[in-house]
Amino acid sequence: MINSAKRQGTLTQSPSLRLGIVSLFVGLAGACVDTVWSAYLDSFFHSIAIVGLVTGVLSLFAVVFYFFCAPLVERYLEAKLWPLAALIVLFAYIGIGNVTGPSSFLVGATVLALASVLMYETFGIIVRDSGRRGDIGKIEGALYALNNIGWVVGPLIGGFVAARLGFSPVFFGAAVAMAIALALFVAIRVRPINHHTLDDGTVMGCVRNMREFFSHPELRKVYLVSGGMKLYWAIVYVYVPLLILRSGIPIYWIGIFLFSVALPLIVLEYPVGAYADRTSFRPLFLVAYAFLALAGLAAFFAGSIYTVMLVFFIASIGAACLEGTRESYFFKITLLRDEQRFYGPYMTHGDVFSTVGKLMAAAVAALFAPKYIFLLLFAQMLAFMWVSSRLKERHPRKDKAAVPLPSTDVA
């Protein structure tokens, strides 16, 4: 159970921008790897359905690991856990880039997936604590914009390096980028203050937080709305690259494609986040899922792989309305005292919906032509658009409209 003393969650400095630079290099490393990830798996398994199944199972491992990761995040300083997780990710990149068979690859990929859970969960809390609560939309928008610079440059680097030198140098380059991010983070000297401890930092305490999180309808809805974005990216980053490979065009086109879909995010995420702070979140979510649903339908009827790539480039305009605002909405509607214990349950949406999206698409690819994955995406995005329409219309303010959640505080 949580002590009655609540975490104030401030930093001795305001290093949001510097943390954004760290996020840029983390994004660069992740983008390099994600650009070749599907192609690398395909070199071992030679099947779209099996590649989707493997990536889905890895995401499922990450979901399960959350129940062991969250107590660590709640009990220890995030500023100490993040460098450890980043170091494990760094060595995982090096190991995966030098494997010789599917078994050793799966071991390395599992380590990478689990360490990434700890790395991203702790970083999210650190960033949230680096600025004023009323500016969360702008902070998150700026963070995602810097992160997406890495996701723009990374695909170009990963795609062209893979085309000329093979897969191993891509993973080595990602390790170098992660080493730079780690060095920058250490140089910032993040020192959270007033970090509370838990009386019950156990797996069962984590389960209880999950149960209380999902007991509130508005948090269930924001969980679904946030998860839909992860489901969408699972299709874009796993299955579209495989279709590019199957079309017979060079592998560097994967890098060009993933470069293009990140461009609108850089341009739009900060102003979108600032707009959401001033007005309302729900219209942005509706516009976003309308864009993504139409993209799935248009890609299904597209006549060439180049048209498919163009469709998803345009759809990124809609994605920018979600990418930097969904997490901001969670913080806006959650009471300060509940943020830390409910942030972990909320963050499971990424791996949960990534798992669901990959496994459902794998099933479709096994039973039908691959293009039917896009029809599935169309139906899924319509469902998330409907959920978005059920969110509260008013602009949530922390001091007036935060969600009144059940508390487990003891006197």
Summarize the structure in words.
The protein contains 15 helices and 2 strands. The protein is mainly alpha-helical and 411 residues long. It has one domain: MFS general substrate transporter like domains (Growth Hormone, Chain: A, Up-down Bundle), CATH 1.20.1250.20. It is globular and about 55 Å long. The relative contact order is 0.17. The N terminus and C terminus are likely disordered.
How confident overall, as mean pLDDT? 80
* Poorly predicted ranges: 1-14, 193-200, 394-401, 403-411
Q: Figure out the total of helices.
A: 15
Number of domains: 1
Task: Work out the radius of gyration.
Answer: 20 Å
Number of beta strands: 2
Oligomer: single chain
Strand order of the largest sheet: 1-2
Helix content: over 70%
The CATH homologous superfamily is called MFS general substrate transporter like domains
| Name of the CATH architecture | Up-down Bundle
3D shape: globular
Largest β-sheet summary: 2 strands, antiparallel
Distance between the termini: 11 Å
CATH fold field value? Growth Hormone, Chain: A
CATH level 1 class label: Mainly Alpha
Percent in strands: under 5%
Structural class: mainly alpha
> What's the SSE pattern?
EHHHHHHEHHHHHHHHH
Describe the secondary-structure layout.
Layout: E1 10-11, H1 16-45, H2 48-75, H3 78-96, H4 102-128, H5 136-165, H6 168-188, E2 192-193, H7 203-213, H8 217-247, H9 252-278, H10 282-301, H11 305-323, H12 326-333, H13 339-367, H14 372-389, H15 398-401
Antiparallel strand pairs: 1-2
Helix pairs in contact: 1-5, 1-6, 1-8, 2-4, 2-7, 2-13, 3-4, 3-6, 5-9, 7-13, 8-9, 8-11, 8-12, 8-13, 8-14, 9-11, 10-11, 10-14
